[in-house]
Design brief:
membrane, transmembrane helix, FLQE3_permease, 10 helices, Fluoroquinolone transport system permease protein, mainly alpha, about 75% helix
Length: about 230
């Protein structure tokens, strides 16, 4: 019940602050770009666009979301409410995954990619991973500049290997690197059992770390530990 209410609250929050309008504009630009490029480039271009933007939007926007919540003293309310950190996290992951899924579906259909169901599944998993990483970074910052500094190394270790893997210029053993497995799925390739296992373990670790980060943020509301 609380998770559903938090999910709807996040949806309203994102709509109020223009997230949907912004991604409608981005989606239009991406569709025009995909329609303009040669047919042979479309699948890989669509995979890169999906992985680096709608799938990763939680990483890019979580700083702004959490800073807005802090400015409205929302963490103070959560700290004294029955809401659990995991419910808060699941609501954030779910609400952002909705936007990611819709945008990814439009881009994938525009590029006429194969195995749409795998692409969308990979997008949801990637979105969850990036949102969890974004939550961990956002709970530790007090300004947008700090958040950008926190996310730069995350982007390097996530985007560079995944894009190189898409073009098959990474060592064979890196196919089990979680973000590379996600990129394979976003590109429409079915993952291996070992690859799925590494992603599941990685997500479990991120969930635990995110829960700890949220608890720490709620326990330091107003600049004083409680």
């Amino acid at each position: 019940m609380r998770s559903g209410s938090l999910f709807l609250w996040d949806i309203r929050f994102q709509r109020k602050y223009g997230f949907y309008f912004l991604y409608a504009v981005f989606t239009g630009i991406y569709v025009i770009a995909l329609l303009a490029i040669p047919e042979s480039w479309k699948e890989k271009t669509a995979a890169i666009l999906i992985f680096s933007d709608p799938a990763a939007m939680g990483l890019f926007f979580m700083g702004a979301i959490v800073l807005l919540e802090k400015s409205q003293h929302t963490p103070c309310a959560f700290a004294v409410s029955p809401v659990r950190p995991m419910e808060y996290i699941i609501a954030k992951v779910s609400s952002l995954s909705v936007i990611s899924l819709v945008v990814a579906a439009i881009l994938a259909l525009t590029a006429s990619v194969n195995n749409l169901h795998i692409v969308l599944f990979g997008t949801v998993i990637s979105s969850a991973i990036f949102t969890l990483l974004g939550i961990m970074a956002a709970t530790k910052i007090t300004s947008l500049n700090q958040f950008i500094l926190w996310t730069v190394p995350i982007e390097i270790v996530c985007f560079v290997p995944a894009i190189l893997h898409l073009f098959k210029i990474t060592p064979d053993w890196l196919r089990y690197y979680p973000v590379n497995v996600c990129m394979e799925m976003v590109a429409g390739y079915a993952p291996s059992s070992i690859g799925l296992l590494t992603v599941a373990v990685f997500m479990a670790v991120l969930l635990v770390l995110s829960k700890y980060s949220v608890l720490k943020m709620w326990g330091s509301t107003g600049g004083v530990k409680i």
